[in-house]
Structure formats: C-alpha cells, structure tokens
Amino acid sequence: MLRIAIGSDHGGVDQKDEVIKHLKEKGYEVVDVGTNSHDSCHYPVYGAEVGKLVSSKKCDFGIVICTSGEGIAIAANKIKGVRCGIGYNDEVSRLMRQHNNANVISFGAKFMETKDVIRRVDIFLSTEFEGGRHETRVNLISNLEN
Q1: CB atoms within 10 A of CB 59
Q2: Fewest CB atoms less than 10 Å from the CB: which of 34, 59, 75, 118?
Q3: Catalytic site residue 38?
Q4: Treating both helix axes as pointing N-terminal to C-terminal, what angle do 70-77 and 43-55 enclose, rounded to 10 degrees?
Q5: Tell me: the pLDDT tens digits for 57-98?
Q6: Candidate list 10, 41, 59, 66, residue with the active-site label
Q7: What percent of the chain has pLDDT over 70?
C-alpha cells in the first residue's frame, strides 16, 4: 500500500485530519508531519517537510493544505524532485498526475469543501502518469532544478 505524507498549517488542520481519517480507512499508511493545532504557525515548514519525505522516497506521495493552497504548494515545490500542483478541481487533480507526474497535491481549506478535497485526493492517488510526450516535459522540469 502507498505511504502518504501529509501536512498543513493552522488554516488547514481540520481538513487535514479529515483527509487522514479517509486515507486510513482506505488502507493507506499516513505520515502526519503536523501541525496539530489551530495556533498560528508557518506553512513553509510543513510544505517542506512533506516535500522532503516524498523527494527522499520515504513516502510515495504528499498532500499539503493551507488556507489558500498557494503558499504551502510553493514551499513544497522548493524541494528538489517535488512536483506539486493545486487540486482546484477534479480534472486538474487528474491531469497533474497524468501529464505532469505530480507527486504532491495542495489544497486551500478556505476555498474548498472537505468532501471535494477527499474526492480529489482519491482521483490524484488513483491516476497513473501517461509518460510518452509528457515524460519529455517532466524531464525538462527536472533539469531546471539546481
């Protein structure tokens, strides 16, 4: 079974907890890097931690959640080997895996309902990378990394 890293700041902690519950019910192994509080904290810490777990192959995929989904996605993408996109609809959640071989997905808790996030997590985790012409593009992205 897949091992999934998940992290959020205070703005996404409630949604993170619901996603973890769903993932565990489906039999996934979940690594929760925090936060586990509503106290103000810094999203880059949690985005980077999820990114490091995915980049090092300690986890197969990652999920990050903050208020908008933007900041924590930017933080995750700073980690070499991470390709994180925001799952702002079902089709994008599928295409980021299918075409971009994304390994981390981000959500904005203030702008997305939990039921939609859970559905998009399932779409993301069940979609395979197509390869082919997309492989060339993903390799070009990898070559941009320092």
Answers
A1: 24
A2: 34
A3: no
A4: 40
A5: 999 999 999 999 999 999 999 999 999 999 999 999 999 999
A6: 66
A7: 99
